[in-house]
Amino acid sequence: xxxxxxxxxxxxxxxxxxxxxxxxxxxxxxxxxxxxxxxxxxxxxxxxxxxxxxxxxxxxxxxxxxxxxxxxxxxxxxxxxxxxxxxxxxxxxxxxxxxxxxxxxxxxxxxxxxxxxxxxxxxxxxxxxxxxxxxxxxxxxxxxxxxxxxxxxxxxxxxxxxxxxxxxxxxxxxxxxxxxxxxxxxxxxxxxxxxxxxxxxxxxxxxxxxxxxxxxxxxxxxxxxxxxxxxxxxxxxxxxxxxxxxxxxxxxxxxxxxxxxxxxxxxxxxxxxxxxxxxxxxxxxxxxxxxxxxxxxxxxxxxxxxxxxxxxxxxxxxxxxxxxxxxxxxxxxxxxxxxxxxxxxxxxxxxxxxxxxxxxxxxxxxxxxxxxxxxxxxxxxxxxxxxxxxxxxxxx
Amino acid sequence: xxxxxxxxxxxxxxxxxxxxxxxxxxxxxxxxxxxxxxxxxxxxxxxxxxxxxxxxxxxxxxxxxxxxxxxxxxxxxxxxxxxxxxxxxxxxxxxxxxxxxxxxxxxxxxxxxxxxxxxxxxxxxxxxxxxxxxxxxxxxxxxxxxxxxxxxxxxxxxxxxxxxxxxxxxxxxxxxxxxxxxxxxxxxxxxxxxxxxxxxxxxxxxxxxxxxxxxxxxxxxxxxxxxxxxxxxxxxxxxxxxxxxxxxxxxxx
Lengths: 396, 253
Known about the structure:
The structure holds 2 protein chains of 2 kinds. Chain A contains 17 helices and no strands. Chain A is mainly alpha-helical. Chain A folds into 2 domains: about 75-180, no CATH class; about 180-390, MetI-like (MetI-like fold, Orthogonal Bundle). The longest helix of chain A is centred in the last third of the chain and has 30 residues, at about 360-390. Chain A is globular, with a radius of gyration of 26 Å. The model of chain A has no long low-confidence stretch (mean pLDDT about 90). By secondary structure, chain B is of the alpha/beta class. Chain B has 9 helices and 10 strands. A 6-stranded mixed β-sheet of chain B has the order 6-7-8-3-9-10, sandwiched between helices.
């Protein structure tokens, strides 16, 4: 437990090495490692050479800028694009305010987003589009300066985020024939909507199911377990198909559109996995923690909220974010029922006779977009872990 | 049952024929006893004798299956409302401290006052800081439990229990998990608490503490109270063979 008091000053060993020593120790320390290193280098050289040559000399990248709008929003009605800008501006205001109020990771995110908008504003789009992008930077920057330091506003901003959810849906859809039918939602826009809805709804659903599965009441436990095990036993594609076919049969009177059906299906699926991830965290909480909370007089709800969940969720952040990333990529499966998400757009561009034979360029571009979003989530998760001191402050 | 102010000689804890089973294992075989307000009782006995289980039934961390327990005029039953009332009146200190690792020491103490007693944050912090002062670790308030020693953690745990202003304090082997050099700092705090008039039930192997502080020593074995007496009688003139054996074994080291 306790380190003995140092009796005399001992210099720590010098662990720093020159690059030459590092190479020798790590790459050529035995004859077989030296051999492996050489083979790997030759392999890497040819792969990289081929890739770079193709990227910079052979690839026809003009397919990307020519279809950029299609990748971004699919067949979203062109004269209604102001709706998307409105949504971006609403989000910009919230992100700006949050960055001012919380700083840290949110601040860096706001900065990165502003940087991306600035790059877009400098690209040779139409003048109006570039103006919209500059405006998007302003909607982040101004609220940032307004919100900075006003910690009393935090509660309101959280409420604002929650409220923004339905507001954004309504703005994107509009009303009746004058709006934009969800069947016209597409591209990255659709991918993001499906992913965000899936993540935001399946997380609380998963926590709820995990708590139910640990319940003392057999009926609740049984229902939750059945749900989780059933969903986990079925592939996502099956659930997407079933959502598409069964929801209209079960609710004949209601006209639930395809996008909404896919939201249900994805959330339904992801919630079960989320529940199992959260349950792993719940089981890691020592019995003594709950007893100590009870002894202080906290009831079940308060014990769960202040003692159990904070510790349980903290310990499963990596798995939960892994689940979010998987969900983000799984949204690409909705193209099988005819929705045109980012990957769907990629497929339709390739099928266009004007761009025949450019699969590699188009798929690579789509992959880069997916990577940017997924890596951002991964990076965010690592930062949150570091901020919360996961691994530190752990008793026992 | 209605709550009422206790007359000076009314017991604050009354147990009548308390039984408890863990599946087939009969842990408590009919405990009948009572404790006066301000009384300091030390409970000892070999492991598995039911002594920890007994004090854990007093705030319903364990459910008793037969008999009656009445704490400060409130009967312990399945009634969740009563259980929560009693838990607010009964503080508990555990062998493994059980501090909440994700909260600072100060937050560990203020959690109950804020969330259960509905004090404001500043009121609760004022109380918490004065309690940390009392257990002599005010300088550790803003650290996390993992950053302080076991003895300090146990003192935070005592302060956490006291912050609910309990009428009764239960100690479940509070020094058993501590390194030897830290035992005395925790016992000092408990001694101070005893002199302040707190009703205390202490499960412990610290016989020196029992002799010095206790009004009564109870000896548990195999789920029954074998002997209870003043410390002087208990240690110098034990009546039962099992008690004599236990004392001779305990005092050897």
